[in-house]
């Protein structure tokens, strides 16, 4: 009597297991020796960052940034805001007294903290930085084209704007357009029509009436419209968006502009060689983390199971995963975002949501991991700046 061979056990590809039983699938990888995530990274490893600047020729600055399968493009457009168009505009001392030199505010480290705070308040009050983030591009199955703006897109736009203000990234003097009576010729140069463009014209007003000696005054500001578009999204949305914004701002060059008293308008040079690059204040580096508790953990506690290095080498959770992708984000009940300045200003911002696994030691470990990325960000995003 012939004996039939035993049937082969059912076998599925890894992606099928990941869809059928996501939590145990991730936990099986993290409990291996050494612990490796399904994307082959250890818990404390970030995805590599790449960037290309100057891709959009119709903007004043642009960048395409990629981290893993998340790709983001950012374009910066500068438009003129005249002080006459600002309701209840009250110039501060910074708008009445021109600085002695071209203030950049970021390289010498000698700025007065009160001045930085005042400039940041002015930028926020006048809305000189306007970020807008778009996710409905088909960047992921959850964000299809034609859909209305999602809550995530609005939240990310607000977080980017908040970090721009907290970091005081763009110095106010670089956004001011001055009128210098002693340095402007009485007549417009003959080549104005060829080399310049009139931004806006109106009748000249005698602002210095009654004053014995004319002095330099701010007549307008540059408003930077920062548009962020996701080409693909695989987790790490905020870190990817901020990296694109930082790279695009470092690529931004503003045209040379001045106030033409005869025309009563701001005139900007169309000569590209006269444009001036933005010099930003600091190097804010963003790192995101997700906490995966696993099935063998009760989900509470003070985070002692995660360890100080992202939970590597632990057989039980929780595990702190650096730069989680979309699959891992869906399994993490707790998230942490850390912003560290690469020029010595310390920790600029910490965001934490959900759960209580991350304690003081784990938070310090997260900060140190983000500090370790400063060199990579400066090397990748600083090219061409």
Which helices and strands, and how do they pair?
Elements (H helix, E strand, L loop, with lengths): L13 H7 L1 H9 L18 E5 L7 E7 L2 E13 L10 H4 L16 H14 L2 E6 L16 H17 L8 E4 L12 H4 E5 L16 E16 L4 H15 L1 E2 L2 E4 L4 E5 L6 E2 L6 E9 L26 E4 L3 H4 L4 E8 L5 E7 L6 H12 L2 H8 L4
Parallel strand pairs: 4-7
Antiparallel strand pairs: 1-2, 2-3, 3-7, 5-7, 6-10, 8-11, 9-10, 12-13, 12-14, 14-15
Helix pairs in contact: 1-2
Please give a structural write-up:
- By secondary structure, the chain is of the alpha+beta class.
- The protein contains ten helices and 15 strands.
- Helices cover 24% and strands 25% of the residues.
- Strands 1, 2, 3, 4, 5 and 7 form a six-stranded mixed β-sheet that branches.
- A hairpin with a 5-residue loop joins strand 14 and strand 15.
- The longest helix has 17 residues, at 151-167.
- Mean pLDDT is 82; it is low at 100-108, 184-211 and 296-313.
Output the keywords:
385 residues, 10 helices, 15 strands
Strand content: 25-35%
| Count of alpha and pi helical runs | 10
Average pLDDT: 82
Shape label: elongated
The rounded Rg comes to: 26 Å
Number of strands: 15
Give a quick account of the main beta sheet: strands, pairing sense, barrel closure.
6 strands, mixed
Distance between the termini: 81 Å
Low-confidence stretches: 100-108, 184-211, 296-313
SSE series: HHEEEHHEHEHEEHEEEEEEHEEHH
Counting helices, strands and paired strands, the structural category is alpha+beta
The percent of residues in helical segments reads 10-25%
């Amino acid at each position: 009597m012939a004996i039939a061979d035993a049937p082969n056990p059912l076998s599925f590809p890894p992606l099928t297991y990941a869809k059928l039983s996501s939590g145990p699938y991730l936990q099986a990888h993290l409990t291996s020796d050494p612990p490796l995530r399904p994307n082959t990274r250890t818990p404390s490893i970030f995805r590599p960052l790449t960037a290309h600047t100057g891709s959009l020729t119709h903007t004043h600055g642009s960048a395409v940034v990629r981290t893993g399968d998340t790709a983001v493009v950012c374009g910066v457009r500068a438009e003129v805001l005249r002080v006459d168009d600002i309701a209840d505009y009250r110039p501060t001392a910074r708008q009445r007294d021109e600085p002695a030199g071209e203030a950049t505010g970021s390289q010498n480290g000698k700025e007065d903290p009160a001045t930085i705070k005042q400039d940041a308040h002015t930028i926020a009050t006048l809305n000189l930085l306007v970020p807008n983030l778009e996710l409905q591009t088909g960047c992921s199955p959850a964000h299809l084209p034609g859909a209305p703006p999602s809550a995530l897109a609005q939240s990310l736009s607000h977080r980017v704007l908040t970090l721009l203000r907290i970091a005081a990234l763009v110095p106010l003097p670089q956004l001011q357009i001055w009128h210098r009576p002693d340095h402007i010729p009485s007549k417009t140069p003959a080549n104005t029509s060829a080399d310049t463009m009139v931004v806006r014209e109106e009748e000249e007003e005698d602002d210095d009436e009654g004053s014995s000696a004319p002095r330099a005054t701010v007549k307008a500001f540059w408003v930077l419209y920062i548009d962020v578009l996701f080409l693909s999204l695989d987790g790490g949305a905020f870190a990817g968006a901020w990296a694109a914004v930082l790279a695009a701002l470092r690529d931004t060059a503003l045209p040379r502009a001045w106030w033409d008293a005869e025309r009563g308008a701001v005139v900007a040079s169309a000569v590209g060689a006269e444009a001036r690059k933005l010099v930003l204040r600091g190097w804010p580096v963003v790192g995101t983390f997700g906490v995966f508790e696993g099935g063998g953990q009760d989900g509470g506690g003070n985070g002692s199971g995660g360890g100080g290095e992202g939970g590597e080498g632990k057989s039980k959770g929780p595990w702190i995963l650096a730069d989680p992708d979309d699959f891992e984000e869906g399994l993490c009940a707790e998230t942490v975002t850390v912003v560290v300045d690469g020029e010595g200003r310390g920790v600029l911002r910490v965001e934490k949501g959900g759960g209580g696994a991350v304690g003081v030691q784990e938070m310090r470990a997260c900060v140190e991991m983000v500090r370790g990325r400063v060199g990579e960000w400066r090397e990748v995003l600083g090219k061409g700046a």
